[in-house]
Amino acid sequence: MNLAPISYQSPFSWRYGSPEMRTLWSEHTKRQLWRRIWVALAEAEAEFGLVSPEQVQDLREHQNAIDLQRALEIEREIQHDLMAELKTFAEQCSLGGKVLHLGATSMDIEDNAEALRLRQGLGLLLEKLSSLLAIFADKIEHYADLPIIGYTHLQPAEPITLGYRLSLYAQDLLEDYQTLSELQGKIRGKGFKGAVGSAASYAELIGAENLERFESLLSHKLNLPFYPITSQTYPRKQDFVILSALASLGATLYKFAFDLRLLQNPLIGEWREPFGTTQVGSSAMPFKRNPIRAERINSLARLLATYPSIAWQNAAHSLLERTLDDSANRRLILPEAFLVTDELLMTTLTILKGLEVDETAIRRNLSNYLPFAAMERVLINLVKKGADRQAMHEHLRQHALMAWRALQQGQPNPLPQTLSQDEILLNFLATDEILEIFKNTTQYLGTCVERALALAQRIRQLINS
């Protein structure tokens, strides 16, 4: 389909989302899809002798002649956007216009078009997500064995590797990728079942015995599977499931961005998002280097998280065979959810491609906090030599408190020296044994390296399959 680059218009989306995603959710594309479905319907009805070949050809010739100005002019008068487009299309087709929309209700057209847009939108997102995962795999492999301090409760804990931390985000992203891929393959349209889902109007036209072949023909023409049972609309639960999956992806990206904001703080200073040579951080403070991209991700992901709640209400409140109280909000939440998700992925791609890793800051933090991580190994070795685990835990805790005070006063971490000279500990471990534990602390990484590399390999296998 030749999509004209007309942006979807909403209160904010003029600056968010790729041109392809904005085009997909534009008025122009929506009307192109409506016309495509009308033509497919006429083609199918022609197979049953209801529409002549000349009428079908007339419709095909005018299928792409979108006249938005004329359609909006009619809509202002009749207050029905689909009927306005139908009248516009019919005006252009002296032969085919007379049979347009035969047997159909509005949602036979709109819901099938929406399903096509949802599927294509997921395709655009999956392309970007695949690119993002590939970059994560590169970064994981590059930093698989670079030790860093891990943090729990926002306090220094034990060492991991940078590649392993990146794997935490990548593993969630991979699950998001698999979920969205599966959902894309499951998207279904309403099909052609009329005002309440009974397909009575079509049965009247072609006979009930022909309905299955009729819908199969249209499903093939549109390359879209249909729900076997619908009301006037396809089940609104489909929207809820899709938006929930997008919100889940948003949560993954939110965590990455929030962690980046913490690590970009100069007090830790290990990571930084890219910052252009002419970029301005603050109108008042020329020195500022604010993490605006990560903050944008957190801001938009919060918005994305609200959409599943509205979609849930649409699904739950769709009374009997149809109410219209979902229509107005769906015109916003569906395109905006996709535009926001698109923007989140593009922004994360920009960050990850230009991610700055400050290994000097990493070494500084390791020097300050890595000795604390050695204390668990000291405790384990003390107990192996017969020491009381609870008594040693308290004794080591007192040493740790003194070490914290030294760090707060700007001194190096004294733990290697103080523990290796402690007479109580020397009853169980020799000085050289204690110092050796501290010397090899950077090797206290468990299986971080192996598991990070395994995930990177799995990512490559799945996205290239």
Task: Note the main attributes of this structure.
465 residues, mainly alpha, two-stranded antiparallel sheet, 18 helices, 65% helix, elongated, disordered N terminus
Walk me through the structure.
The protein has helices at 19-24, 27-46, 53-61, 68-78, 81-92, 106-142, 162-186, 200-206, 211-222, 237-264, 292-316, 327-353, 359-384, 389-408, 415-420, 423-426, 431-439, 448-463; strands at 147-152, 155-161, 271-272, 356-357. The protein is mostly helical and 465 residues long. It has a two-stranded antiparallel sheet with strand order 1-2. It has a two-stranded antiparallel ribbon with strand order 3-4. Helix 6 (106-142) runs antiparallel to helix 7. The chain is elongated. The two termini are 26 Å apart.
Summarize the structure.
By secondary structure, the protein is mainly alpha-helical.
Structural class: mainly alpha
Strand order of the largest sheet: 1-2
Approximate shape: elongated
Radius of gyration computed on alpha carbons = 31 Å
Ends apart, CA distance between termini: 26 Å
User: What's the order of the H and E elements?
Assistant: HHHHHHEEHHHHEHHEHHHHHH
Mean pLDDT across the residues is 92
Tally the helices. Answer: 18
Poorly predicted segments? 1-13
The main pleated sheet reads as: 2 strands, antiparallel
Q: Helicity level, as a percent range? A: 55-70%
Number of strands: 4
